[in-house]
Specification:
The chain is mainly alpha-helical and 323 residues long. The chain is built from 12 helices and 2 strands; from the N terminus they run ααααααββαααααα. Helices cover 75% and strands 2% of the residues.
Length: 323
């Protein structure tokens, strides 16, 4: 039995969003998730392999970018693995549906935060690198280990509260999968949940914007010596704008739900059509991000088209192209 049908038949009565989508709309929504997820996995995997297994891996900035593309790919593979028939059979036989919901919600929340934090630290890296170069300092490789470590730290920090009794995991809008519940508790924990939402959604957007602006200002002071860095920063700016464009609609919906509860107004604020397209746009974000990078970054475009070429040919051709 499909997970979606099982949840709809057994748990939809406890989902506060049960009236948003009809049965037919949920089928359409899941089919859209399948298509957008498949496209995102294909494009993000292609770019990740390019960044990690071509000569681009010798560039620390591109390796740092690979963290973002790899996590985006893994995040969209995990739901498919958890929905395998064998996994669903074990859940049904041993009554693990509730545990499976929390496990999926934790993994989804962890990877969602990880994805955003990785892009945030790609933007931060552009500012830090520009700052070091303009001051004549030597950038250290352990900075990149620090970026990755901070991404893991914040992902755990924002994902673990429901497991220790602060907030909870619950059904998402489609009532067929679980995530960090946006229904606020009735006690002091509601303010912590709102703070977590702000820290994982609003704070990264501010950091991305400010660090990229600062990086461009610093790079403009030494345009001749920072030409290559300016080109990559331009690519990161385009990627960030595309990602924020894809993430913003669903973030605004969830933020509006939290705000409406704090203001004690009706939760049903948008139509199922808008929610459906916002969720699809969020899920297909890696596809648009990879396409944007492909269009604006000559090095990435060349490597993606010549992925199977011998490495010495890649290096020779890249050097000839730069000359």
């Amino acid at each position: 039995m499909k997970l979606e049908r099982y949840i709809e038949n057994n748990f939809s009565d406890v989902c506060v969003w049960n009236d948003i989508f009809s049965h037919d709309e949920r089928i359409i929504l899941q089919e859209g998730f399948l298509l957008t997820g498949l496209l995102s996995v294909m494009f993000s995997a292609w770019l990740s392999v390019t960044l990690l297994f071509t000569s681009l891996r010798f560039d620390s900035s591109y390796r740092n970018l690979a963290n973002f593309t790899s996590v985006a790919c893994v995040r969209r593979v995990v739901p498919a693995l958890l929905h395998l028939p064998l996994v669903k059979c074990i859940e049904t036989l041993y009554g693990f549906q509730s545990f499976s919901c929390e496990l999926f919600a934790f993994l989804e929340t962890f990877l969602a935060v990880f994805e955003v934090e990785c892009l945030t630290h790609v933007c931060i890296e552009r500012y830090v690198l520009a700052k070091y170069i303009t001051n004549g300092w030597q950038i250290r490789k352990n900075h990149y280990y620090l970026y990755f470590g901070l991404c893991v730290f914040f992902s755990w920090l924002y994902s673990i509260p429901p497991l220790i009794g602060i907030g909870r995991y619950g059904f998402d809008f489609q009532c067929t999968c679980c995530t960090f519940d946006v229904i606020l508790p009735d006690n002091w924990q509601r303010y912590i949940v709102v703070a977590i939402f702000a820290l994982r959604s609003i704070k990264p957007a501010i950091f991305m914007t400010m660090t990229l602006i600062w990086a461009r200002v610093l790079e403009s002071k030494f345009p001749s010596s920072m030409k290559d860095h300016q080109q990559f920063t331009r690519s990161v700016i385009v990627m960030t704008l595309v990602s924020l464009f894809c993430w913003t609609p669903i973030a605004m919906i969830r933020g509006s739900v939290l705000l409406s509860q704090l203001m004690h107004v009706d939760l049903m604020f948008v139509t199922s059509f808008y929610i459906m397209w916002a969720m699809w746009l969020h899920w297909i974000a890696p596809t648009f991000t990879v396409i944007a990078l492909f269009l604006v970054d000559d090095r990435v475009r060349y490597k993606m088209f010549n992925l199977c070429a011998p490495e010495h040919e890649q290096l020779d051709n890249e050097g000839t192209k730069e000359d």
